[in-house]
Amino acid sequence: MKDLNKLIEEAQQFELQAVTRRHFLKDCVAGIGGIALGSLLTSCNGWGQSKSAEKLDLNALNPLVPKPPHFPGKAKSVIYLHMAGAPSQLELFDYKPALQKLHNQPCPESLLAGKKFAFIRGIPKMLGPQATFKQYGASGAWVSDHLPHFSKVVDEVSFLKAVHTDQFNHGPAQLFMHTGSARLGRPSIGSWVTYGLGSENSNLPGFVVLTSGGKTPDAGKSVWGSGFLPSVYQGVQCRSKGDPVLHIADPEGMGRDMKRDLIDAINNVNKTEYDTFKDPETLSRIAQYEMAYKMQVAVPEVMDINNEPAYIHELYGTEPGKESFANNCLLARKLVEQGVRFVQLFDWGWDSHGTNPADSIDLGFKNKCREIDRPMTALIMDLKQRGLLEETLVVWGGEFGRTPMQENRDNSDMPFLGRDHHTDAYTIWMAGGGVRNGISYGQTDDIGFAGVEGRSSVHDVHATMLHFLGFDHEKFTYDFQGRPFRLTDVEGELIQAII
Predict the structure, then answer these.
(1) Dihedral sign, Cα of residue 219, residue 224, residue 229, residue 231
(2) 342-348 and 207-212 beta bridge pairing
(3) What is the pTM (predicted TM-score) of this model?
(4) What are the backbone dihedrals phi and psi of residue 399, each rounded to the nearest 5 degrees, phi first?
(5) PANTHER family this protein is in (predicted)?
(6) pLDDT, tens digit, for every residue of 39-73?
(7) Comparing C-alpha atoms, which of 129, 142, 53 is closest to residue 97?
(8) Weakly modelled stretches of the chain, pLDDT under 70
């Protein structure tokens, strides 16, 4: 009885607070938009007493409804393949025969002056390319023997050979590569894209994340977080092994009708809360409850690769039931085919320091290349044969590059061959979605140490990606803490050569 009286008192206090002058004035100043929205919703689908009338007009409240960009973009969706740990461009795409001639010679001190490295100390030795290169395709692109499958599709891609960053540690560099800032709190590029374009499939998340390699990126889930954008725009992590999403199945005894009634009741409470406080996170909560309900049916179907024909499994090298980069590439194709706006693949294990065989540039690195070569090639071929490549932007890269010098921690040789983190030059490639194919843009010096022509910053890469989707990166903003923010901050130029 005492608890009941307390609840009654709290309810009476809330009612009195709702009619105070201060509360009235607050609602008059801040709630006019909500009153207008409420009248529109009521006129279309009123909030009467019947059960059917109590249901929300979810299209009006859904933050993920499809929206037009600034101008017609070539790309409708993005598949971003991030090699977490930073693959060596000098063993893949940036052919430097002059570096081979310097192998095992002391590094010139002029290259070290004023530079910061993660681990190199003293005077390291130069490290020649641990791969054999040839030119392929009509474009004559240089590709190493580590990627025999990928060499067949080089005419479909554009290489950016002189990308640079200002972050030499994994966490900040990954944040910078995916959010435009090395500090926590900014939205990821996938969140920006779903915020700007919404989603074309109301039964699936607009932004899906798939991981492989056994670990998540060093920066954690912030690299697919929504930052200061409403949380409905953050990435939803799915799995290629086991249940695609944890707890996707209802508890025993909970039927779909019961779940529907439960969600309707919760959403009506949240709608009342939104009418009172106008917090966009409340709309996110409504949308996420609805999405979770729909995902229980849609996700298991789209995330099932068992029904793909045998030639597709052969093309990608997939193994159903396992967590692998190959499975994730096939899933990425299935997801964009179903209207998912942004698919982010993270493959961990590319940090080639030479501390052990698994992270050596001449042993473990080759194994990682074998894991990605076939599936990423298959992804481009599969998208093209389905007519999806023209409207799907595919991006591949890491968070920085690797040094042309051999790593020497504490000024002593490592047990295996390895390269340290390097900010001055690395390679990213793009394909589809309006990308001018068969292009190699940018050039590094004779040993691959620094860009000497066509340098591209991380902000330039972001500005160009947004352009392919139909956005002017300087006008694509979100107001936060009293000023407009954008993915490219106050920088960024379009890389015109690949458009």
Answers:
(1) negative
(2) parallel
(3) 0.83
(4) -95, -20
(5) BLL7424 PROTEIN, DUF1501 DOMAIN-CONTAINING PROTEIN
(6) 444 333 333 333 333 455 555 567 889 999 999 99
(7) 129
(8) 1-61, 240-251, 253-259, 261, 284, 287-300
